């Protein structure tokens, strides 16, 4: 495995984006396009009793209104996988659920038509927050090893606390957009999605279509973070295109997205943790409860997956429960399960370090591990201690006064220095890639994956340009298109470490193919000139890769549009990425306003393929972590089941003035087992732990433990 550092290349798609040349789904305006708008339900639970559409049809420009009667019956239940998302239904499961779709010649007409439709309902009692009287509590499976209760009973010091993380919504700037085209018996869908193959299968299932007749393209996306997978709206727009015979476009308003797309569930974590006299963690009990829809899939047990592997914990008991509510499905959001879990866990670690009079950094260093505590497998690589030491050095941690409330700034502000760590699994998916180089100077690389701004195209380009003598200005990287290659869902920080090994293998195979073609002949020039010199129009190779422990069955699952992720716990080892965050808070003594003037964040993501976009990922993760800790919370109205701050005016996120100096460091040590490229995931782990670091810094500044997010002025008054 090469350990040569990759150069800091500019983003390959940067110019296209800043010039407006990159086309997002919402940018597409095709000839004869119709515009759609949904009609959201105004009750939280019940059923439709009437759906009058006559007023909408009288609006000039309205072409048609789709109702539940315009959609085929749901497909029969199958144990082979989750059913496709529903279309339009008469049963109302949550407020904001679409009950009709208005199609018009203009967007304005579609909006006006949707606004004049006044359905009537038979409402039922509902529960929409965890404290609701009708909320149903459903216990989850345990995650356990060792004997945590016995170990904690003999601990020299224990901490027991409860931590709350709020409901939050993703709010990427790009809204969820779908353009569907029905032509010659085939359906082409342009969508801002991170899972085009899953969308293809879901739409085919919902509309009873042959999957071979459905194609999905999500080539360019403006941020996703877990929100833009399979949406109910896609099948609605596709059905509209089929029935009208014209392209149909829907860009869902943000207020509706709040009610229809997935979101980060509110969680409550009860943690009991203990250490022996030497400061070694002897046991952890961690109970998690989360809000969940009646049939939601977001697993409670996953909150324990990474926590148990953070340190050398020998005894762990993880329990949990779903609190079933009448809301839409919760789901994945940047940092997914570890983000709220590590706000709780790393806060508890800090509490235990303080209680035992140990420095928080030294406490973590003393609890290092080189094996997976749950199964005893070796960790493929772990440079967490290097992250801790480098972060402490850059931050100047040695100058920290350990006594809470003992540090002040010249203006009288209370100063707090806090830190925390993060971990996230480094999973892998199979990949199928085709590399084609032609004699006219063009190179095309088609592969599974979606570019959401994280820099996947740039990472692929870095590999191909470094390994092949091609024209970098004429390199096309086709992603997110089911016609170009079978597409895996890009999520969970498995994107780059799944496609980069395939790009490396494709480059190696291409060099071998060129050598065979030349058969010892010495031909000058780059690969394009070589092909032209021997009058070969093009040369093409195809490669397939799988994750550790996977076989051809995983590739077949990918080809069929299925989910074929190899989780980080592989047959012979486990693989994770790590981060260590150090930050300073300043709290104004009278207003108690919290500022974060500086952050140092160091990450271990294996080999760094694209330094520029890797640094960008960490910047974004740090900023979102600060937002999670100090700004974001979705406000829910328990009387009506709706969201109150469903726009960027009221949903509070950081602005430029909120962000101070952020210093990023990457260990850049290849992982020898994870994959031939030595790369691990980065996007998720860059956020995990930031919230705890903020809370720990607030405690250091004030002596007050805040165990509820977001931390606001009223917590410190």
Walk me through the structure.
There is one protein chain. By secondary structure, the chain is an alpha+beta fold. The protein has three domains: 25-125 and 170-260, Aldehyde Oxidoreductase, domain 3 (Alpha-Beta Complex); 267-426 and 571-716, 2-Layer Sandwich (Aldehyde Oxidoreductase, domain 4), CATH 3.30.365; 428-559, Aldehyde Oxidoreductase, domain 4. Helices cover 25% and strands 23% of the residues. The chain is built from 17 helices and 26 strands. A seven-stranded mixed beta sheet has the order 3-5-1-13-10-11-12, with helices on both faces. Strands 7, 8, 9, 14, 15 and 16 form a six-stranded mixed beta sheet that branches. A four-stranded mixed beta sheet has the order 17-22-23-26, sandwiched between helices. Strand 18 (431-438) and strand 19 form a beta hairpin. The chain is globular, with a radius of gyration of 26 Å. The termini are far apart.
Can you summarize this structure?
The chain has 717 residues and is α+β, with helices and mostly antiparallel strands.
